[in-house]
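Components:
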Amino acid sequence: MSWVAVARKDFRDAIRSRMFWALAIVFGLLSVGLGAAFGYYSDQFIESVPGNQLGVGLVSFVQSPITIFIMFVSAIICHKSIVGEWEQGSLKLLLSLPHTRLEVITGKIVGRSAVLAVPAIASLVIGLGVGGALLGTVPIVLSVEFLVAILVYIVLYVSIFVGLSAVTRSSSLAVAGAIVLIVVQFFWGAIAAVLTIVLDLSGDADWLYIYQSLTPNGAFNEVLSATLAATTEWPAATVRANNVDAVYATPVLAALILLLWFVVPVALGYWRFSNADL
Amino acid sequence: MAAIEISGVSKRFGDVTALQNLDLTVEEGEVFGFLGPNGAGKSTTIDILLDHVRPTVGSAQVFGHDTQAASVPVRERTGVLPEGYGALGRMTGRTHLEFALQAKRAEGDPQAILDRVGIAEAGDRRVEDYSKGMKQRLMLGMALAGDPDLLILDEPTTGLDPNGARRMRQIVQAEADRGTTVFFSSHILEQVEAVCDRVGILNQGELVAVDTIDGLREAAGATGQLHVTMSSIPDGLVETIEQRGGVTSVAVEGTTLAVGCENAAKGAIVADCYEAGTVENVETSETSLEDLFVSYTGGEN
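Structure:
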């Protein structure tokens, strides 16, 4: 259980850094700001929220900025997690103790996930609480499921970026990889539009379901919407699969792709790292 | 069972050969000095023992465990002072030691270790604020955590002041007395001479000699050095000394004669000088390990 020790050390290191506290404060301000803004101006937002429901509106209003923020922050705090220690040489010291390389990777993922999860969950609880108090209604089940989803999202990006950090042999490559992954996702829709025109695919747009589920965010959002719609008052129209008439257009496909995003980067990172000379 | 058994190990990094067909056995309880110029392959050898680096050819065992297949059991019994690494993150000295003890699944008092390596007062300070020597002492403390059966020290006196270096030697000696095998790499010869039972000399990835220090001296020709300082060097004295048996070299440095010779010839040489002029000082020394080292490694350093 040596990964626990590695994770604890990683977490302890992080909470001693100024960056952690800066992160916690920004997280807090962002969540509370979003929650309060929605609670305060709900009259103006109500028309644009899914299903015209205040609780749903609150969660969906908070979701998008928070997930984008988490994606950036996890890239910042994880891209050096392995390769940085490798460059510094402290990895040799860590691995001179009886830890395996798998335990080091696992410990890093757990430790850095906790570094993000603690301020994220704490701020979101406060933010949703403030928003709910102003609205006079707190969507308990929806909020709890949303918080669990945020945890999943944090672990998703932390494992992608730790995996990337274990694959690369220089911090700058790890940074480049992280930037590419983030930027490509922002332009994913635009790329699809260009492809449609260039390849003249306008006739049948059903394939877009697969395309839009290929990115970590696309897959995650589809699975989240499907889960929330199945278990809460979350509107079913937000599930993309419901709007596409094709056999493959099912959240199960998105879930499989999401699973690959969890497994493949870490597996590649571990494979590369376990075979590398330090 | 041997503590360390390296058989036919070669390691290439791309086109660079770091180790060439290395065979080496270190017995349990031995203090083994691993000497060589920078870049000779000392650290690569240590990295192979710890599975940081995998040999291209050959294999190594520590206490009978294969270093690749059973790396964790190897590292559970080994304390390591890696070369030139500061610290693990932002923890205090004490938390570093707790972390090492925990990893070794060992009971132990961090304070006792801090005392032992001479940084008792610094235990609650963060390691980023430590001086180089204090970090090195802490790393030694981490190596000692859990009373390992094998202590691997890679250039352990880097960054240490003379007091620190002396404490390092005392600790190595105490560990050896306790029965710990010590594998000690260095390019600083006096330290190796002071603590090691046996010495291996590595040069350009090849082990060029393994023996006791006395054995190496004998093999290298056992010449000593004699320095005689006189008020002035009389004519003909150098020639007289050169013709004596057992003398291998005579050099004049100012008014000092530096004679390379067998120990038995030293008395007669001093007598020659005494008869020929005024002797102000006589110094005699055995072949230094440095001379041995240079003779084995071709003197590039």
